[in-house]
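Quick note —
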Amino acid sequence: FVSVCHSSLLVVLLCFAAATCAITVRIQGLGEVVGSETVTARTQQRVHQFFNIPYAEAPTGARRFRAPVPIAPWTAAKDVSLPGRPCPQPGITDQLPPGDITPAIEDCLSLSVYTKNVTANHPVMVYIHGGSFQLGRASDHPPNYLLERDVTLVAVQYRLGALGFLSTLSSTIPGNAGMLDVVLALKWVQDHIGDFG
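Predicted structure written out below.
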């Protein structure tokens, strides 16, 4: 018994020393994601975090400027333990913290899920970042204070600027792709958030 307690304590301490412990969630109809853990700011409650979960195929090539296409299922577990790269936007390097040289990437249609318990049913909050449809990313505002309560938080990334909202009033570039990204992300939440509690 003492040996088991010491082993359990060692595992817990190693998790805190590494600042993250892996947690795997199976998203029905899509595949597995492997997230990490953090703690809330005020009361140091454990929070499971899953960054950069794709909800749409990459909007590149023939898909650029078009409505998003739902993500296809994957076979290998996806490592979603670190924040993803932001969508292209003007002045991205000006708004990053010092030392962060994260380049923007067009394959950015993803969301992040934060929850304290992956088996309990909690109310869901969806955060859609501001920035006048020009700036922002899902990881701009960490959930350190929001998750002091029993909620599941989802933060969405969507196409910005010309890639998200350019319109030539034609079928080639109809416009409002960024808004359609948000609609698809909300549908993803409706269909899959139950797998996260």
